[in-house]
Write a structure and sequence with these properties.
The longest helix has 13 residues, at 135-147. This protein has a two-stranded antiparallel ribbon with strand order 1-2. A two-stranded antiparallel sheet has the order 3-4. 39% of the residues lie in helices and 13% in strands. By secondary structure, it is an alpha+beta fold. It is built from seven helices and eight strands; from the N terminus they run ααβααβββββααββα. A hairpin with a 5-residue loop joins strand 7 (124-125) and strand 8. The chain has two domains: 3-22 and 106-147, no CATH class; 26-103, no CATH class. It binds iron/sulfur cluster (SF4) (2 copies). One iron/sulfur cluster binds next to helix 2 and helix 6.
């Protein structure tokens, strides 16, 4: 049974089921990653900017640390989050994203991932792990999943 079929009918046990990132960007809107000096230097090198530009334009000036930084938010999201289509975002520094972002795993039971499902796909997950919503949205979501270069 495909995973979307499992989600439609409600799998017996969804606790161990891997959930692909929908790239909705909800987590990148909600949190500001704290990063260390080495991570900041990697981003600076990737962007080809000066350290002064990093401090003035990308690091949150309200953060009191000198050896660590908070990535700045802009328009309610991480400054590196890009909206690339009506339903997809991308990280502009994906290859050098910090550990805080690397360690964050998408999960069917995370409120942020569920918010993304609802925001872009009008779908919800019930207490048994069943994906619920209008049939046309389930179909559109299924097509979207197939278009992603990942699998559940
Ligand atoms: S650095 Fe990239 S992955 Fe991390 S919060 Fe910002 S946009 Fe999201
Ligand atoms: S909230 Fe979940 S699905 Fe959306 S981008 Fe973050 S990890 Fe991916």
């Amino acid at each position: 049974m495909s995973v979307i079929a499992q989600l439609r009918t409600g799998p017996d046990d969804v606790s161990g089921m891997a959930f692909v990132c929908l790239r909705c960007g909800t987590c990148c809107r909600k949190y500001q990653p704290q990063i260390n000096f080495t991570e900041a230097r990697l981003i600076v090198d990737k962007l080809g900017i000066s350290w002064e530009e990093w401090l003035s334009s990308y690091a949150d000036s309200r953060w009191p640390g000198e050896d660590s930084f908070l990535i700045r938010q802009k328009d309610g999201a991480c400054i590196f989050l890009e909206q690339i289509s009506a339903v997809l975002t991308r990280c502009a520094i994906y290859n050098v994203r910090p550990a805080a972002c690397l360690e964050w795993q998408p999960d069917l039971f995370r409120s942020e991932c569920r918010q993304g499902l609802l925001r872009y796909w009008h779908l919800e997950v019930d207490s048994s792990g069943r994906l619920t919503g209008p049939s046309e949205d389930l179909t559109a979501f299924e097509m979207f999943l197939k278009s992603l270069d990942s699998t559940f």
